[in-house]
Amino acid sequence: MASSPVSRATGRVAVPVLGLIWLAVTTVPFLFMVMTSFKTQQESFSSSVWTLPEAFNLVNYIDVLSGSFLTYLKNSVMVVAISVLLVMLIASMAAYAFARIRFRFNEALFGLIVAGMIVPIHITLVPIYLMTRHMGLYDSPFALIGPYVATSLPISVFILTEFMRQIPKELEEAARLDGCGPFTIYFKIFLPLSGPGLSTVAIYNGIMMWNEFIFAYVLTSSTSTRTLPMAVWDFQGQYASNIPAILTVVTLTSLPLIVAYAFGQEKIVNGMMAGSLKG
Amino acid sequence: MTSITLSGVNKSFGANFPVIRGVDLTIDDGEFCVFLGPSGCGKSTLLRMVAGLETAYSGEIRIGDRVVDKVEPADRQVAMVFQNYALYPHMSVYDNMAFGLRQAKTPKDEIERRVKEAARILQIEPLLDRMPKALSGGQRQRVAIGRAIVRQPKVFLFDEPLSNLDAALRVHMRSEIATLHRNFPAASMIYVTHDQTEAMALADKIVLLHAGKDMLKHGSIAQVGKPLDLYHRPRNLFVAGFLGSPTMNFLPATFVGQETGGAHVTLKGGEELVVPVDGSQLAAGAPVTLGVRPEHLAPVPVPAIQTLTRKVSAVEHFGEYSFVYLDGGTPAPLIAKVAGDGGVKAGDSATFVAPADCCHLFDADGIALNHLNSL
Amino acid sequence: MTDISTRSAGGGAGGTVLSLRKLAPVIFLAPAILLLAVYLLYPLVESFRLSLLDWNGLGTDARFVGLDNWKKLASDALFWRAARNNILLAVFSVLIQMPIAVVLAVVLDNAGRGSRILKILYFLPLLMSSVALGVLFKYFYDVNFGPLNALLDYVGLGYLAQDWLGDTRYALGAVIAVVCWQYIPFYMVLFMAGLASFPAEISEAAKLDGASESTIFWKMKLPHLRGTFRTAIVLSVIGALRYFDLIYVMTGGGPEGASELMATYMYRNVFSSFQLGYGSTVASAMFIIVILIASVLLRFSKRYETEI
């Protein structure tokens, strides 16, 4: 049937048409966002949404960037960088133990940690909120690091353990003959050889943390302590009905990841897929 | 003193699965010792116990005059070459070889001297900056050996080092390992393989380990000795059947009595043979097994004393020699390896002499009866 | 491997090295276990404890009320409506996302050169934070200034224009549409990987046997994707049950609870009504529901796997 000339022709047409339709569905909201960000507030009320901006108007960008936006950005970079590094270190240490050291409860403990992946974080929200207040960390960007690292651990331990199990046992034995103890083997052999696994963990968790909302919302409250996702939230309140300004903030908060994506699409797609699939 | 002594070494995985059973063994100073056996016989485990990578369940291992059971692998003055080389993929050839020395805090110039020296011996000097990924199988093998050499160990351990190489390279590297042994006469070497050709070619001493269904013997030593001793004077059916290719022919026979020339036996086909072994412990009529290697069966024109006459079922020609398959072997067909084309064809009846000195006789337990003449 | 230590408790010069080796798993695991205990296990237990209290979260006037909160929950229509919305979200996520994702995967599978660039563009929504998306779509759906209604107007479907997020009839659907918009590319990539693993020899052999492209698709490739479907469904259902951010930002659960989810309901109880105890009850109930459904799904999909 499909090999008949007619249906082959429909196939030739249908494929690009469907592909373009979805491209439109994907891009229309983005177009709306970017286009509106170049309009003045006046313009957004007076003209139809789908008319192009009168000029390549950067007033919103200047306005937003001269405000507290960069503080949010700085907090995000700091929190995510520290958390990702900690996740890589702590998860790879645990993964090394699970993958390579025989001890009682190895499998049970591994199963327990991996099961942590299906726990909805919302159940931890109130106790963590109370705990954070108690520790005096409330309304500090550092309050986010603990929950971020902890919620990233199950998936990261899982990915890295799977990865390290595939590193040949002989390498470890060769290292033992070369005089390495477990700590040297971890640092000098397993850590360097886990590069791809570590990058998956870093990409997936980095993106999740970069976009994380609920902990940031609950554990911080001031402009000076909040992260980028909260910038959108706060500006939304601040600018009220200035839609172009708000969409400028949305554009700007999305930009860092989109720029990163431009440099390593495959890596990011694969990292996101691997992370979610295991999760 | 770099002799290695294993006394009463046992190991099992789980309660009921012994892998090493009561191994007593001494490997002398500078000796090249090969652990040989079919897969699963525990030869690698035994090697790894010497390395310190596995722990014995009981028994004692000495290297030199030091009991090493509680000594870390790195402190046993052994170096190991792994089957799949186990080169650190993220380090250059130089760093691979230097890694162990750096761990031992060897001075930098000393490291450099030793690595360069090993690289020279192994002719891998141009490769020192390469990563393992960029090396061929043979080159990786050399680097793995180089990593062992730089440590100046008292004992070299090889775990099936040639099994990942193709046939031609394997022969070549085999001769290089023999050269290595000559270059380091003071070091003892233990070499694990399942390949009897490698074992015969390299070994000063072969340790053949049991494997198979007989759980009482599994993981125990079947025979220790010089390669040709094992070939000519196998102590039991397992050794006789393992060494040699094609394997030794086994024929069920009945013990008739001890005569001056040796044990007199009758085969199922009615042939009478005298095997120069001591059968005085056997009762007349006892079942025995006659063993004779294919290469020792020689064609003769007419039946006489010490001959077998059987129908030829097939002939395989290899040019230089031929395999003649004969009816009446148990369980496998009887094979004779004869020079040239053998002069017989399938369907013929052929007669072969089994020279008395080349016959072996095994009692009902599979133990060889002692030969009357020594080698 | 810690073999060495088994035989040698204590013992001479090697003693310290060996005990370090024995301690190794503890040292390697300690940071992970500590963090998980503090930020996952303790909050889990604490949440159940809080669910037995009547407390506004501020003072010290927490009152132990036993199972009162749980009894209240059992007859709390708002909670069950939220749970029902979670289920609706899960069901519609699967029903809408899977077919579109498969079609797109097939399209890209046949698109040749353009497929890479399309895949990259399609994937963009997954990089957006849900707050950004929520705010973006809040304005996208806006009744007066929103481009959606303008678009409908433009193509002559102006009578379809609605107050998408403000109308109890449409709010949940509008939100589900955004969820689908964001996640369809994810499942598309998943199905593309599934299709890529279909052995080329099989379709070649089938072609030699006279099978048409469509037969190959329906009778061979689609069954080949069975495992991928299972994974996709598990992921999307579990995801839907835990959903929070996007909906909280877009509707806050409104109007009149029309798009309320268990997570948003919990949030409102704790941080808007300051009913910490009852909010924790909602959170704990949500936890139980998610774990129950997840384990049923996982078991079912596992059993299914072994049957094949």
Write a structural description.
The complex is a heterotrimer of chains A (279), B (375) and C (308). Chain A has two domains: 5-58; 62-278, Orthogonal Bundle (MetI-like fold). Helix content of chain A is 77%, strand content 0%. Chain A has helices at residues 5-37, 41-46, 59-66, 69-100, 106-115, 122-135, 145-165, 169-177, 182-193, 195-210, 214-219, 228-239, 243-263, 265-278. The longest helix of chain A has 33 residues, at 5-37. With 375 residues, chain B is of the alpha+beta class. Chain B contains eight helices and 20 strands. In chain B, β11 (249-259) and β12 form a beta hairpin. The relative contact order of chain B is 0.12. In chain B, the strands form four sheets. A six-stranded mixed beta sheet of chain B has the order 6-7-8-3-9-10, with helices on both faces. A five-stranded antiparallel beta sheet of chain B has the order 13-12-11-14-20. In chain B, strands 15-19-16-17-18 form a five-stranded antiparallel beta sheet, with no helix packed on it. With 308 residues, chain C is mainly α. In chain C, strands 1-2 form a two-stranded antiparallel sheet. In chain C, α4 (77-110) packs across α13 and α13 (262-272) packs antiparallel against α14. Chain C starts with a helix and ends with a helix. At the A-C interface, α1, α4, α5, α6 and α7 of A face α2, α4, α5, α6 and α7 of C.
User: Would you count the extended β strands of chain C for me?
Assistant: 2
Instruction: Give the CATH level 1 class of the largest domain in chain B.
Output: Alpha Beta
| Global shape of chain B | elongated
Order of helices and strands of chain C: HHEEHHHHHHHHHHHH
Amino- and carboxy-terminal Cα gap of chain C: 36 Å
Structural domain count of chain B: 2
Mean pLDDT of chain B: 88
Just name the CATH architecture of the largest domain in chain C.
Orthogonal Bundle
The largest pleated sheet of chain C is described as:
2 strands, antiparallel
The total count of strands of chain B amounts to: 20
CATH architect. name of the largest domain in chain B: 3-Layer(aba) Sandwich
